[in-house]
Amino acid sequence: MDMAVPETRGWQARLELGFEARFDKTRLKHRRQRGPLAVQRPFYPEYGVCHCYLLHPPGGVVGGDELEIDVHVASGAQALITTPGATKFYRSAGLSALQTQHLRVEAGASLEWLPQENIYFPAARSRLRSRVDIAEGGRFIGWELHCLGRPANGERFDTGTLDSRAEFWLDGRRVLIDQLQVSGDDQFSAAAGMRGHAMAASLCAAPAGQAELDAVQALIEERFAALPVGATLVDGVLAVRMLGQNTECLQATLIPVWELLRQRLLGLAPCPPRIWAT
Questions:
Q1: Which of 59, 72, 232, 266 pairs with 38 at a CA distance of 20 to 30 A?
Q2: What main location does UniProt list (predicted)?
Q3: What φ, ψ does residue 256 adopt, rounded to 5°?
Q4: Do the Cβ atoms of 170 and 207 come closer than 8 Å?
Q5: What are the Cα distances from residue 163, in Å, to 6, 18, 103, 166, 254?
Q6: Residue 57: CB partners within 8 Å, gap ≥ 6?
């Protein structure tokens, strides 16, 4: 199927979400949307934590689309955000698709940002910009999973571009920039690139210390030593990076890492979103 789109301006969408602690649980107190971005009603599968599912009703992102997501978690609130399925970036006839995300976590609050994978069709042109602001006393765990091409169908990302950049700020100070830039096949075989893998993922958690790094590295050594995955600690941000060929392999590795960090940083037992099991 030819997924090319004409060079016209696409969807202009914005979604604002504000979470506040009210009595015994976190509530979604502010929701403003423009264009095709929305959330389902909040779920409470565990005590106090608000689970939300982001929706993009068109089912995919095309050249010329501009999507903005702004999340604010107020002091004392606890939110977990995921998506019902993969986000697809379709082939473009020339324009780039832009998705920007600003995630703000106040003191005493926590945010878990766990979207399912982004799939970039061959010839897609995509730009992602994320900024995570964590106030002193705030907690954050989040990941991004990128799939270049459609490996299950044998489609390589031989043309197209991906420019992904995420900035992490702790108490007003930028401490980490996580970038992935791919132009066609140029990064697939590079030793400093994809090394022949179709997928790349990053999980970041903050604030973290040597104890969290040691625990994650021990988990990797015990269960995933044969896989291309590693962990580093940069100025209070724990970054776990991984390459793979399919979503199942990445999730089977990163979900246990998330569960470990959830217990250590947030004091919460593992509680995978229900949508992951469907």
A1: 266
A2: cytoplasm
A3: -60, -35
A4: yes
A5: 21, 28, 19, 10, 23
A6: 36, 38
pLDDT digits (tens, 9 = 90+) for 58-86: 879 999 999 999 999 999 999 999 999 99
- The tokens describing 63, both together, are 């050249």
∠85-120-180 over CA atoms, to 5°?
A: 105
Contacts of 21 (CB under 8 A, 6+ apart): 27, 74, 75, 76, 77, 78, 109
pLDDT confidence bin for 4, thresholds 50/70/90: very low
CA atoms within 13 A on the CB side of 262: 20
